[in-house]
Amino acid sequence: MSKPALTNNISAFPRNFWTAISMEFFERGSYYGVMSVLSVYLVLSKNEGGAGFSKESVGVIKSTITPLLYFLPILSGAIGDRFGYRKVLFFSFFTMSLGYLFAGFSTTYITVFSSLILVALGAGFFKPMITGSIARVTNESSSSLGFGIYYWSINLGAFLFPLILVPYLKAISFNYIFFMASIGTGWLLLLNYFVFREPTGSRVAKPIGQVLTEMLTVLSDYRFIVMIVIYSGFWIMYFQVYDSVLWYLKEKVDMSGFNHLINGVLSIFMDHPNWKFDAEHVTVMNAGAIILLQLLVSGLVRNTKPLPTMILGISLGSAGMGMLAISPNGWIFLAAMFIFTLGEMIAHPKFIAYVGIIAPDDKKALYQGWSFMYGVIGSGVGGILGAALYVRFVEEMNRPSLLWITFSMIGVATIIGLLLFNRFLAPKK
């Protein structure tokens, strides 16, 4: 596409499109700003400015709020279609902003847990409203560009907020990160009220009970359910990036070599720089790699078969996770995280495409909604399992290599499962 044609296509998007994109940027920036350091904050002692919880108790929190966030879009899309997007968005922004605000003031386990459930509740209702709004203002010729901009807005928020805001706010107090997220989502109430408009034709006459009954019909497609359960193994690994990987970085990894390199570059522009690679930069790395490479990676695999491509991506992810077992060297850590992210970039878009291929023609959206169960299972198992294994292998046995080999083997088991699925159960379509 030529630059003039690209410019014309971008300028053709209506105001509601850019309003939805702005909402996505600030909501995801706020969310990933918090998530980039949440697991570290929750286990730090109170003397260090943290909440002082045990890793096992944090695993319970993460295995509750993240599955909730992934499950709710299955329901909230139908609710938005029934009652209107603006009403659901108002509920979403109010609930998220309140949850972040309460989390910033909370000091006990039950109040922090309750605050984060509010955040997950609001976030779970948010995402289908944005994707639905974009779908309603794009057509076959503009949807690829429209959703490409949408995907970039997610990762741009996940890149900039942890890179710029989180280190500054963390130096004052971790609580300020929650307050930042409360403001970042709370001001969207104004954008929703004054700028956003209800998408044309967004309501349907079906009662919610009927919609829910239709949703349950997907459970009868056992092959689809088996595929989701198998693929969830990759996401058990993925959710370690926001939990056990961050604990490992803070407690075991030596980043001095990388820090010295970056400070050497910064010394050209400033005196006595003291930059340090910290927990939030893992999220920055993931989002930055996707921003730079996703279009290239997607182009390279655009004509490949979905299941073999997913297996290739999961193989890279498993290799990246396994590399952490080699050494706590900072350069190995960075290489492992990059290879894991590359695997994610290869596997996940093909998974989304595969769901669209195997879904019945009249149930495409329904199947895409249920496909989020990979996140429900992956985070539900991954949070508790990661915390338990970290305490056992790293803290009690001082053998962190066993932790990463175990998760790498979960990836290998996922690959074997997909190979068997491809051989015996995959629809011939």
Q: Can you describe what's shown?
A:
- With 429 residues, this protein is an all-alpha fold.
- The protein has 2 domains: 16-215, MFS general substrate transporter like domains (Growth Hormone, Chain: A); 221-429, Up-down Bundle (Growth Hormone, Chain: A), CATH 1.20.1250.
- Helix content is 78%, strand content 0%.
- The protein has helices at residues 3-11, 15-43, 55-83, 85-105, 109-136, 143-172, 175-186, 188-194, 208-216, 222-238, 244-251, 256-266, 280-300, 306-323, 330-358, 364-370, 373-396, 400-424.
- Helix 3 (55-83) runs antiparallel to helix 17 (373-396) and helix 14 packs antiparallel against helix 18.
- The model has no long low-confidence stretch (mean pLDDT 92).
